[in-house]
Structures are given as structure tokens and as C-alpha cells.
């Protein structure tokens, strides 16, 4: 049977289209980005979609803890991760010999002291149970908040890695419990105060993320606790990774998605903007 001419032409057009699409897919640069639970998830997904328009195929890989993303990156299972600040990265490198490097700033998540039982630090009762992070870096960040609140005193040289052993005065005899960072948002019914992160409070729905009795003053720390895009040294200038970061940092649609996710500008800051302004 003879195939009509218009069907022959349609078949050639379809075949050509498939070849063009296949070539475009083959030309895409592919990267795998490791992340943890965050209000930024929608913004990261949007940035991945926009990066594809620039020739970069971004696969987002989610992790449920704070240790595996660096292990996966060091082993080459992912190309870049985005979940940690500089002190956390330095501690991970020191403990595990990863040699991972930060290559760009991201969003800076505030940390706060939250309570469902008291409305001021003056109301904290003697012997109250309070919560801090159990990892050596974020625990220090939380203890600095307790010290700023006037509830404890730390050794003068304790610094960002302060631990419970660095407490030199505890006039209210607070009982500290240590928990993994992501769990702190879920214990507000069980403790008088908890160090926590608005991002996790938002995800857990246990309180108003903006209701902390005290927030961190991250600008005073030079954005030390801003999240970083982190990779292996040989990937530091990878064009695909750099393209994705450029989209994340500069596209106004991504910025709108970040603002929508947090819903309150005092819960976060765009650290790369502040760093750029400081450099001028």
C-alpha cells in the first residue's frame, strides 16, 4: 500500500523533531544537588526549572539528616550541596577530612529561642528544662542566644563553638537537653524554651515562626551562619553549578518564591546581597 505524501512529510517532521529534542537533551549539562528539608525547597525547584532553560539539568536529591549530604558529596554521589553554614562545614571537614569547599552564599536562616509557656525571659522558672542543638556548631549558636537573653553566662573565649561545658553561670539552674537540630521545633510542648530555626518551626507547624522571644543577630557575625553552596575542589568552577547558583541568586521569580515560603522578612536574609553591598 502506498503511504500518502502528506503522511510521509509528517513522518519526516516527527522524526526530525525527535532528533532535535534528543540532541537538546544530550547537550544539557547535568548536576545533582543535595538538600535537606527547608522552606526554600520550592525556590530551589523553580531555580532548577529555570536553569534547564539555560542548558543545565539539575536533579535535586533530598536528605533527612545533616551528615549524609557531605558524605554523599565527598564520595561523588552528588555534585554540590546546599544545607550548611560555614562553621558546620569547617567542623565536618575537620572531623572527616572531606576537604569540601564553599563557593557561594545562599539564604541565611535566623535562629531563635521559642516558648509556648512563657512570654518573656523573666518568666522562666527556676529549674526549667530547655533545649539546644546536639551538634557542636549549632549548639554554640543556641548557647550564645541563651547568654544574650541573660539566662546563662559563657566563658569569654567560648566563641561560636561554645558547649554546655563552657557555661560558667546558670542562675536559674536551667536543665539543658540536647537534640538534633530538625527535632527542636517539635519539643515546644515539652520544654520551657527551645533553640530552633524558623524554617523548621514553619515546616513543623508547632508555632508562629516569627514568635521567637529572641532572634540571632547574624549581620553582626558577618553572615557566618548563611547557608553555603558547597562542592569538591575540582568542581568549584564547574560551569553548570555556577549557572544554577546564578539563577538562584539573581532571578526575581526565585526571590519571590523564597519570600512567599518564609512569609516574614525577619526570618531570613539574602546573604549574597548583603555581602555584595559590603564589598562596595
From TrEMBL:
Membrane topology term: Lipid-anchor
Entry GO CC: membrane
Signal peptide: 1-25
Superkingdom per UniProt: Bacteria
Pfam families: Lipoprotein_9 (PF03180)
Localization annotation: Membrane
Key word Ribonucleoprotein present: no
Keywords for this protein: Lipoprotein, Membrane, Palmitate, Signal
Family: Belongs to the NlpA lipoprotein family.
PANTHER family: D-METHIONINE-BINDING LIPOPROTEIN METQ, D-METHIONINE-BINDING LIPOPROTEIN METQ-RELATED
Name of the featured protein: D-methionine transport system substrate-binding protein
Taxonomic lineage of the native organism: Bacteria, Pseudomonadati, Pseudomonadota, Gammaproteobacteria, Pseudomonadales
